[in-house]
Write a structure and sequence with these properties.
The chain is α/β, with parallel strands linked by helices. It has 14 helices and 10 strands. Helix 1 runs antiparallel to helix 9 and helix 12 packs across helix 13.
Length: 386
């Protein structure tokens, strides 16, 4: 039964974006552009996207709500501070306390937060917890946004530019469509690379509002979607294993290890982050007034978190031991935790060469433009053409 619980944990990281997608269920199909070198959609034949992107850059630029200014210099030596006092802060986590929060656990256990005079309380999230709202209302000092879209979405909906994204843990989206390679024995790894045409005529379990991803595949790759059957995804892999569906929406760091626990080493995944729909994940957000009133506190938080991420990458075994102590909301083994670390490592590093935790303004602008195009966020000045 452990794999059921793990899937629920992993799914929670996707829930905030799924809620955003609810709006997209009513959006008209539009041409989604091809991916640029950074992995997000732009250009191609989608001239309306080009217009929207230019409008976003002028009227709703990423520089107004996202910054790398407070991140530590890459390769900077770690120097503990002399503390006259300790600043307590509450960090609203994107999900329950499972192994996904390993960098924060490292920063607490290894004293990185203490070294910069911070005492961090991790406030767990969950499917009904909106940490971005909590941040806006002053209930937490930092919000960790799972989908990476909370800041522009909240600003666009409220009209108040009171939040700023200051760094990200995952620089690439973990969202995939997961399947089984039946031409490879269950006890062997599959090297099959899924292509969009592999979904033709198949049964796919997705979450409400995600049907626009079929338009994405149709517009970009010419996928014939008429014979595809959609159903509601569950928080477990049972429908896939039992053959009720051919593919299911999943989180690359979670469901695959559940499949492996059941003996299905031959799973395959179609990663949308590599196909032009690539969002930041586990983004740290703060209130603008904190940046203005206490920028040094934000710098200290980000420096310690960066140390926690570097330690995770360099010492996965020791990080797994720490995670098993702090992940109080999940039943995990060390093997499961190490497998998560292995699967998520490529998502932590930016394919375009940016340092850890850094973000690209162009990626943010392109993400918002695509969200506008699909009706996932409303910026009236940049509305898509009817």
């Amino acid at each position: 039964m452990v794999y059921r619980f793990l899937n629920k944990c992993g799914r929670g990281l996707w829930l905030p974006l799924c809620l955003m997608f609810l709006l997209g269920a009513c959006a008209l199909p539009v041409a989604l552009p091809v991916a640029d070198e950074e992995g997000f959609a732009e250009g191609g034949e989608a001239t309306d996207f080009d217009r929207i992107l230019a409008c976003v850059e002028e009227n709703f630029p990423a520089e107004s709500y996202a910054t790398n200014e407070f991140l530590p210099e890459p390769g900077a030596a770690w120097e503990p501070m002399d503390c006259d006092s300790i600043d307590p802060i509450k960090v609203g986590m994107s999900w329950i306390l499972n192994d996904g929060a390993a960098p924060w656990y490292n920063a607490i256990e290894l004293g990185y937060f203490a070294d910069v005079c911070l005492e961090v309380e991790m406030v767990k999230g969950g499917p009904d917890v909106d940490q971005v709202r909590r941040l806006a209302e002053g209930e937490v000092d930092v919000a960790v946004d799972a989908a990476g879209s909370g800041t522009p979405r909240t600003i666009a909906s409220s009209g108040q530019n009171s939040l700023v994204a200051v760094g990200t843990f995952l620089q690439h989206s973990p969202y995939v469509w997961l399947g089984i390679d039946h031409n490879t024995p269950r006890d062997q790894r599959s090297d099959r690379q899924l292509e969009p045409d592999d979904f033709a005529g198949k049964k796919i379990a997705i979450y409400l509002g995600e049907a626009f991803l079929l338009d994405f595949l149709a517009n970009r790759h010419g996928l014939e979607t008429g014979g595809i059957s959609l159903s509601a995804a569950t928080a477990v892999v049972d429908p896939l294993v039992q053959g009720e569906v051919d593919f299911t929406a999943a989180w690359i760091v979670n469901e695959p290890r559940a499949m492996e626990e059941l003996g299905y080493m031959n799973w395959v995944a179609f990663n949308f982050g590599e196909q032009g729909w690539d969002t930041y994940a586990d983004v740290s957000i703060v209130r603008r007034d904190m940046l203005e009133d206490n920028p040094d506190l934000v710098k200290r938080y980000l420096a310690a978190l960066n140390q926690g991420i570097e330690y995770l990458l360099e010492n996965p075994d020791a990080s797994a031991d720490i995670a098993l102590v702090y992940a109080v909301d999940a039943e995990l083994t060390k093997e499961q935790t190490l497998r998560r670390f292995e699967l998520q490592e490529p998502l932590i590093r930016e394919r375009g060469g940016l340092p850890l935790t850094h973000m690209s303004a162009h990626r943010w602008n392109s993400q918002v433009a695509a969200m506008i195009q699909y009706g996932l966020v409303d910026v009236p000045a940049c509305a898509p053409t009817e």
